[in-house]
Amino acid sequence: MGADGFIETRDLTKAYATGAVEVVALRGVTLSIARGQLVGITGASGSGKSTLMNLLGGLDTPSSGSIRVAGSLISEMSKKELALYRRNTVGMIFQSFNLVNAYTAIENVALPLLFAGVVKKERLHRAAELLHTVGLEARRNHRPTELSGGEQQRVAIARALVNRPQILLADEPTGNLDSKTARQIVETLADLNRNRGLTVVMISHERDLLREFAHEMIRLQDGAVIDREVLRPNP
Amino acid sequence: MRIADYIKQACGNLWKKKLRTFLTTSGVVIGIGTLVSMFAFGQGVQRNVTEQFSKLDLFNYINVYARGGQRRPGHSHDPDEEGWRGAEDAASDANSPRLDSRFMEEVKKIEGVEVAFPELRFPAQIRLGAKEQFTLVQVLSASICRSGPMPLRAGRCYDANEPNELIISDSLLRRLGVNEPSEAIGQQIEIATLTLDFGLTTLLRMVFSQGDQALPIARESHNFTVAGVAERMPFGGMGDVYVQPEAAAGMRKLSLTSIWDFFQPAGDAANYSMITVKVKSPKDVALVKKELESRGFRTFALMDQLDQMRIGFLIMDMFLIAVGMIGVTVASLGIVNTMVMSILERYREIGIMKAVGATDGDVQRIFLFESGTIGLLGGLFGLILGWIVSMVIDTIVNAIMSAQGAPHMDYFSFPWWLCLGAIAFAILISLAAGILPTRRAARVDPVIALRHD
Fold it and tell me: Is the whole-model pTM more than 0.80?
């Protein structure tokens, strides 16, 4: 368990009803992640990694159990409170990038600021800064379809950072990338963890790559935590 | 999100789907255009009727009829009424008040009454040069003419010393081939009356001939000089030709209302079927009516019918709106379809928006602004379309009516509240059409939407 429990789950269970059959995706997951940690989560397909990530990101609600993030009990939040939590506290990165194809790179990065009510000039300024940070300033007016997979993922990272979140949740961010690009993305996220003090929770099949950077590794199987391995001391 | 951002988002998203936006908006344009035209027509009719009535002072007139011998309970012992009837004890109906010249003189003394005159008309053939028209001739004294019940476009009211002068309406004048009223002043017009002729010659002709030649009708012609040209008002104008009682008395004719009554000496048992009383102001109508009715007469005033007219106009407006609403309903279904399509296409985008912090309300408002923008554009261009269509119809109808001698008239009316109301209504309908689809969009589960291709 982490030291200060910045992210804490207790007996977290998530079950889906598919027709008459109930599928249990998570079974009583209890874990704690400290502020500033980079935690890697691994497991086979269907082990409940993405379900856990959706619950931590406030995209989904648990069937039972609790989730506490930065002192707030998000498992008890209303839909609107969850939206504000997603807007202000977490940034999410997905395997399939999830960029809006109709928007340019800079518009995609600025999208969360739109919902935060930030004026256009400020939105574009902050988005441009982050595109510069991820090395895509020159591609700011390109649409996602005109960018490579790695570039799209870097746009997604910039978008996840634009609201200055405390937590970065990355759901298999390297899944659609070649190994070289995958390493670059993981290195970028590790840099953000180190240099900005962001708490990063990253799912990946590439266990070895994750082990190079993570403070702690968690392994899921059939919706339960079967292994926890502390690799480095907490920051 | 800020309002300006919702508007920019809506415009941007609609612009990306230009053809679909154009087609959906066209539906609204046609629907609103139809509705606006219909409603403007209703308003035009209402405005024209009330304006013409006001212009003709028709709200200032009371028609007075005898009760036909029927007395209202309690009136037979009214001392004022007894005094009113005075010595006129007609042998035929001792209890009925009379509509006669003496009554007219008494009416003029009632507070608020400006003038009173009998309603006397007869059919006649009017000829100017080679052209002839059949119409009703109104008998009206020179003094009443000068009191101003009819507006003159040219010339003057006839002179009481010139019984062979007449006044003709501008519409009849056009039908007789004279378009400029001032050109008619001083021209000779022939009035031909029809009479029943039971002379021997006619009877013999009836026996030995066939068809229309068999009718016992004779024609008698009289020449008049045009003194003035009156503006013929639609919806209740007084007549097309006006002559003085002295001239009418010398003409044999088929009278609708007997002119003989008018010329019988005062004191004779002469009754008119109707007398028209003009009051000084519409405010006087109620009091004068009450006074006349208390004296045992029946009355009719358009003023009384105003509320009924308003209900009638309301029903007409409702009917026209109902017809116009068909187009709007079809257009709103188009908006529903467009919004459903748009939401399905952007299902994943909705998931992304929610993942980065959009609330359900943000998502709903983004789509509502889109449907509202369609409504705004549809309302604006619909109003323009409705106006253009109305102007075209107005021009065509006026061209046709003008050829038949009718004065120019605006058949459509576009008051400011109709213009603003049409745009507001278009937006409202579009928002209403967008509510269900946008609520669906707001309820999209982001987890499912992010997995959606």
Answer: no
